Amino acid sequence: MNTTIKSFGALLIASLAISSCSDDFLKEKISYDQTTEDCYNYYSGAAGRVSDVYKWSQPDVNSGASWKFPSTGRGDDLDKCTEEFTGFGGFVNELVEYTSNTPNTVPDYGFQQTKNIQTMAWGRIRNINDVIKGISNGSLKEEEKRELLGQVYFWRAWCYYLLVKWYGGVPIITEPQEVSASSFTQRSSTKECIDFMCKDLDMAAEYLAPYTTNGGWQSSDDYGRVTSGAALALKGRILLMYASPLFNRSNDKARWQEAYDCIKASIPVLNSCGNDLAYDGNPGTNASNWALMFSQVGKVNQEAVLVTLYNDILKGSTPDYHFNNSWEDLIRPSNALGSGLNPSAMMIDMFPMADGKIPAECGNYDASKLEHSAMAYDADAPFMNRDPRFYRTFAFPGVRWAFNGDPNTSTLNNPYQGKDYVLWNYVWFENADARDDIFGEKGSAYGSDNLSSGVKGFYVRKRTDDADVNASQRYIYSQETGFEQSSNCWMEIRYAEVLLNLAEAACQTGKLDEAVEILKRIRGRVGYTSENNYGLQTNLASDEGACMAAILYERQIELAYEGKRFDDVHRWLLFDGGADFGKVTGAPASWALTGWGGNTCTYLGFKPLNGQRRENLLFRVSSDISNGLGGVNWQKSETVSNPLEDPNNPDPLLKYLKGKGIDRAAYVVDLRKELAPQLEKLATFYKSYLVRKLRKGDGWDSNYQDYHMLYRPHYYFLGFGSSIQTQNPDLYQTMGWEDNINGGMGTFDPLAE
Questions:
Q1: Cα-Cα-Cα-Cα dihedral of 361, 364, 368, 374, to 10°?
Q2: Which of 138, 143, 168, 173 has the alpha carbon at shortest distance from 156?
């Protein structure tokens, strides 16, 4: 591929040697870019080059989905294409259609053309190929070469995976190319790319086996590097993707069998590498151990298959080696110096009830093949009788959410120390027009406890380092930095996903009993038991469509806000069920979905996401209390130290409760204690003083007509924008996208073998 090389500028040859392949290096992520080929002749030099590959390839929770990183649940454009968030991601905005031309050019997930080798996918791949060539031709011992090459082969497959899931076939490049036009490489077929990635991962698994099986790297300074198990887990994910309707329109069972065989074989290897279902069968109090799993305890996390490590070094230190995890800072409310992350009402409403079934009144989320709960869903108290993971995934008004530190400053007026922090985020409005406006455009909502106009209706709590769960938090909180110095790891692949991948492949190869047993194991970890069949309906072992629907629903709950939902929706064609490929200009008949009855949504009993919209959910002060209105500004009283006693506090509900001699603290839900009686009291509080209110999520036009999600069928395989085509004039354009060089439409078929 000529322009992959032409625009690189200087050739990246090798990197500065370091003393060892250590955990400290992985956490610090120092860049080593300037040295000679001689580094490949001694172990520490070659290991430094491998560590450089980690730096530029490893997933990072601090970044949204891009050519370099997968989605990690931060509310990026891909997350916003799913039920998890509101606010159109670019791909589902019915007002904007991406094309190959400006002004709405299709996003670029790998073919950037810049003079910085490290800012494009092909630069990473060239860097990896350089390391493979250098180590292979160097004078290291054979076992040293295999240890290092195994890791680099993994990351080459990873880079190609991020490309293939968007484009199908891409150029396969295995050697560092010369900087010349003659270096051009055309797109390979998707099948060739799948085989290439699998070959790399097989080599990675073989080469790394002597070092990583039998718990090899779990207890050493190399913890955090890829293992044989991680290689096979990624291979299983790739084969599952290739067997899914996105690539497998006729439902070729041979692909599913290949995926099943791979994932099944990966389980004992993962176990040997030290991976397993963390806290299997030991949910703790209200799924506290499930929550604890996300706060890496000690150094080794049993659940973590592909893991990125972070440190708590202070930003701006000299030299600046900080590499912090910003998730805690993202999700915490603003009165704890965080930003806050707002889930959609749809996501809250569709979470399972305490009996494990989907709510019968789950709004516009339809699941006709999933048995609806016999427990009534109370939308006015949505926390009542929910799946244990609900309370570890969301935070809502009246729930305790502890941390270490003092969030009180001269401006925050927060009544709590971190160890006693309670989220009271009900809202009131400045005037009646704002209070009654369903469109959210006539005034702001103002939140209790000085959340003010930055209040979120509900908050994402998933993956928090809760002080009530983890006594040894892996963050450093301060009033200056908030939660920015977190050292919590990020699990891009965790063991539960591998099990769910296996369940999916088992279901699609007729092994429904095995799939159901996996679902039981996943649910047993959070507190479901055999007494009610782990909350599962009884026909899953006899109804393939229902079984597959249950697996995808379980993935949606278990992996919520971990960046996995878009990929599931995308590969299962859940935007339109795969019914609209006939609308793709130039698409051949082979693009029509013939498997799964011609429509995956019908097969699964799911309502297509296209045509739906998502709203935000909050709870406002009842109109019976000061008309649901209150002040905006808080002029803190100098003589009152407790904000709850401050007469200038603008919170109308606090004033009302104080006048009645009622202490709202009596209604706080503490997840360390038995939930049922606490939730009943909180529900009484809600129904006495608060009102459920939906606010604008996906938007309206000027006449307040609803906008709806629309994922166009040609988006399932992306094309190249005009600038990419200009710089790569010989590169085949994808079918369904304009060919700005040769005219007409693209000719490359991602489904052709």
A1: -10
A2: 173
In angstroms, the CA 659 to CA 454 distance is 27
Residue with tokens 């041979």: 254
Of the pLDDT bands very low, low, confident and very high (cuts 50, 70, 90), residue 19 is very low
Any residues with CB less than 8 A from the CB of 644 and at least 6 apart, and which? 415, 654
Distance CA 220, CA 227 (A): 13
Only one residue has tokens 């006539």, namely 442
What 3-state class would DSSP assign to 687? helix
Tokens of 559: 């992996």
Residue 174 amino acid letter: T
Q: What secondary structure letter does DSSP report for 499? A: H
Spacing of C-alpha 356 from chain mean position: 23
Give 616's strand partners. Answer: 695
Q: What is the dihedral of CA 450, 451, 457, 458, to 10 degrees?
A: -100
CB contact set of 511 (below 8 Å; sequence gap of 6+): 260
β-bridge mates for residue 394, sequence order: 460
Q: Which residue type, as a one-letter code, is found at position 361?
A: E
3-state secondary structure of 742: coil
* Exposure on the CB side of residue 453, measured as CA atoms within 13 A: 8
Percent of the chain clearing pLDDT 90 (strictly above): 75
Does residue 608 sit in helix, strand or coil?
coil
Residues 108 and 721 sit within 8 Å (Cβ to Cβ): yes
The values of phi and psi at residue 29, to 5°, are 55, 50
The SS3 call for residue 391 is helix
Q: Which residues contact 636 (CB under 8 A, 6 or more apart)?
A: 413, 643, 646, 648
CA contacts within 13 A on the Cβ side of 119: 8
Position 248 scores a pLDDT of: 98
**Which of 195, 197, 173, 191 is CA-nearest to residue 124?**
173
**Tell me, what's the pLDDT at 115?**
62
Give the other-Cβ count within 10 Å of 530's Cβ. Answer: 8
Q: Whole-prediction pTM value?
A: 0.94
Cis amide leading into 319 (omega within 30): yes
Report the alpha-carbon distance of residue 374 to residue 294 in Å, rounded. 32
Q: What is the pLDDT of residue 663?
A: 95
Q: Residue length, the chain?
A: 753
Helices (H), 140-227: 142-167, 190-212
DSSP string, 532-548: GGGG--TTTTT-HHHHH
Q: Quick one: 374 exposed, middle or buried, by C-beta within 10 A (0-12, 13-18, 19+)?
A: exposed
Per-residue model confidence as pLDDT tens digits over 696-749: 899 888 788 889 999 999 999 999 999 889 888 999 999 999 999 999 999 999
In terms of Cβ atoms closer than 10 Å to its own Cβ (0-12, 13-18, 19+), residue 162 is buried
Q: What is the pLDDT of residues 226-276, one digit of tens each?
A: 999 999 999 999 999 999 999 999 999 999 999 999 999 999 999 999 999
Q: How far apart are CA 81 and CA 567, in angstroms?
A: 10
